[in-house]
């Protein structure tokens, strides 16, 4: 085993399971593809289906409901959790973060309050990529999710809203990459190991990308989403990342055929911009990897890459009279392309079907990880904190800053990185705004929750009951076995209910402590 490694955790936002070249996609991602070729790809790794909830679990090693986050956006110090940045800083690591935080914006909730020595980035959620603030001389009016919806930015402890960049060529993805490189340049040269958490907003809406990147993809998506799904599925099977016997889920019920689609030029443009955003992110990752190589630390650096949820099928278009991509537009990629991003799985972001919670995960560490390995073990974002603690030689505390800390829900991935076996999760659970899931071994029970509108489609009543799938034979969730296995459904239902109530109890116990710590 190598000495304590440097750790670089890279998180994409709203990226689908099959968007990367090394996961069957057609988008140019040469830097991530090289990481995959020289490292390990996971096929059964899970997130929490939405940005905030995934970040809570990723940072703390606990289920998001245990630390007080479902759709809320506060990760408070003084409660029942400790972050991996706090653990590693106490273990002697330099802790750096660039990118999207989305885990609270009040005192005690900022990155520098939760273990990071340095921070630059977006405290809130998504933002206009070219200008998060007010109009600058000589440019069109920046379009935001809502008029005046300026997101909060942080530079260590200094907060700014609205943040209007001076640089006319500002682009959020480049900014995050450049600041990560700057942090490494300033803090990565000594013998002290470093942790870098690089959390991109790409390819989260709005659809914005430099014109030269969009031009590389314009016209490529005239094949339509049905053909794109077929091609990606074929490549996934050839790569050994999915099993051919699973087949592929049907086109989502909220999506029409490509032949029925109106204004195919606009649809092609949407996916071209989305692809350009992923491409530009990969270029930035390449610059970060180059810096690590220049520092002479590539061999002893663990690099991890994943997404916070599946591709997003939400429909927003605040500039229908203009083609997406520029500062004066605000649009989403929409459900049909999101369905393709999540090939071969069902659903997308916010759902607990595989399309919402399955993520690519690449692990690259030349000193320990076998090149070209594919790992089919089931894992979850709660596993990162125990992994980092083990690799850093950091003890997980039962108290931190005077508060009792709940046990971590994750299991270290370190044995898998070494090519060894590890103890499996006895089960995993999810819940998001009524969507529910529980996976135990080969069996998964999942529910869509109450009636709702999402992605321009109404999911009717009667969808809140459990569906049951055999993940070994049918990971694409096409054959519901619930009617034939009522006792198994009851067992999984009881398991999920016990988990949910336990998480809520822990959260309620932690709330008074967090409030007291906030002062």
Task: Give the topology.
Layout: E1 6-12, H1 30-37, E2 40-46, H2 51-60, H3 84-90, E3 94-99, E4 118-122, E5 153-155, E6 158-160, H4 172-187, E7 194-199, H5 211-217, H6 225-239, H7 264-294, E8 301-307, H8 335-341, H9 354-357, E9 358-364, E10 373-380, H10 384-392, E11 399-400, E12 403-404, H11 414-417, E13 428-432, E14 435-440, E15 443-447, E16 452-454, E17 457-459, E18 467-470, H12 486-518
Parallel strand pairs: 1-7, 1-8, 2-10, 3-4, 3-7
Antiparallel strand pairs: 2-9, 4-5, 5-6, 8-9, 11-12, 13-14, 14-15, 15-18, 16-17
Helix pairs in contact: 4-7, 5-7, 6-8
Report on this model:
With 519 residues, the protein is of the alpha/beta class. The termini are far apart. The chain is 29% helix and 17% strand. The model has no long low-confidence stretch (mean pLDDT 94). The strands form four sheets. The protein has a ten-stranded mixed beta sheet, sandwiched between helices.
Most strands sheet: 10 strands, mixed
Percentage of residues in DSSP E strands: 15-25%
- Supply Rg: 22 Å
- Broad structural category: alpha/beta
Helical run tally: 12
- Spatial strand order of the main sheet: 6-5-4-3-7-1-8-9-2-10
Which series of helices and strands comes N to C?
EHEHHEEEEHEHHHEHHEEHEEHEEEEEEH
Helix content class: 25-40%
Q: Rough shape?
A: globular
Average pLDDT across residues? 94
Give the strand tally: 18
- Separation, N- and C-terminal Cα atoms: 44 Å
Provide a short characterization of the protein structure.
By secondary structure, the protein is of the alpha/beta class. 29% of the residues lie in helices and 17% in strands.
């Amino acid at each position: 085993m190598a000495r304590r490694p440097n750790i670089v955790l890279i998180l994409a936002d709203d990226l689908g399971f099959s968007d990367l070249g090394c996961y069957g996609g057609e988008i140019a991602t040469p830097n991530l593809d090289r990481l995959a070729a020289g490292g390990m790809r996971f096929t059964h790794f899970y997130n929490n289906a939405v940005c905030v909830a995934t970040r809570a679990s990723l940072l703390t090693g606990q289920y998001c409901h245990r630390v007080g986050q479902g759709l809320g956006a506060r990760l408070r110090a003084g409660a029942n959790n400790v972050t991996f940045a706090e653990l590693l800083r106490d273990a002697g690591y330099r802790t750096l973060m660039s990118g999207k935080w989305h885990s609270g914006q009040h005192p005690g909730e900022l990155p520098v309050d939760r273990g990071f020595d340095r921070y630059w980035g977006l405290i809130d959620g998504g933002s206009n990529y070219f200008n998060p603030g007010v109009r600058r001389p000589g440019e069109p009016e920046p379009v935001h999710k809502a008029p005046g919806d300026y997101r909060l930015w942080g530079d260590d402890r200094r907060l700014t809203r609205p943040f209007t960049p001076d640089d006319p060529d500002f682009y959020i993805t480049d900014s995050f990459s450049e600041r990560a490189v700057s942090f490494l340049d300033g803090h990565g040269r000594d013998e002290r190991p470093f942790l870098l958490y690089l959390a991109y907003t790409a390819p989260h809406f709005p659809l914005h990308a430099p014109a030269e990147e969009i031009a590389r993809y314009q016209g490529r998506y005239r094949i339509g989403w049905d053909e794109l799904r077929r091609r990606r599925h074929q490549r996934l099977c050839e790569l050994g990342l999915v099993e051919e016997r699973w087949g592929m889920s049907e086109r989502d019920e909220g999506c029409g055929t490509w032949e029925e689609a109106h204004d195919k030029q606009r649809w092609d443009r949407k996916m071209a911009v989305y692809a350009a955003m992923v491409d530009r992110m990969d270029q930035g990752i390449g610059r970060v990897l180059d810096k690590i190589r220049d520092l002479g630390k590539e061999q002893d650096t663990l690099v991890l890459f994943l997404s916070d949820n599946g591709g997003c099928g939400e429909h927003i278009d605040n500039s229908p009279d203009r083609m997406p991509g520029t500062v004066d537009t605000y649009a989403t990629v929409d459900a049909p392309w999101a369905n393709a991003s999540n090939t071969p799985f069902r659903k997308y972001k916010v759902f607990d079907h595989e399309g919402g919670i399955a993520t690519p995960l690449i692990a690259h560490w030349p000193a320990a990880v076998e090149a070209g390995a594919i790992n089919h073990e089931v894992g979850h974002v709660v596993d990162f904190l125990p992994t980092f603690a083990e690799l850093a030689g950091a003890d997980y505390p039962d108290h931190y800053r005077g508060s009792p800390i709940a046990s971590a829900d994750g299991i270290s991935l370190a044995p898998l990185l070494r090519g060894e076996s590890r103890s499996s999760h006895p089960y995993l659970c999810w819940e998001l705004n009524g969507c529910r899931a529980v996976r135990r071994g080969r069996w998964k029970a999942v529910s869509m929750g109450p009636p709702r509108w999402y992605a321009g489609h109404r999911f009717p009543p009667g969808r809140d009951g459990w569906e049951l799938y055999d993940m070994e034979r049918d990971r694409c969730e096409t054959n519901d076995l619930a009617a034939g296995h009522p006792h198994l459904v009851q067992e999984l239902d009881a398991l999920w209910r016990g988990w949910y109530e336990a998480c809520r109890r822990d959260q309620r116990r932690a709330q008074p402590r967090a409030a007291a710590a906030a002062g």
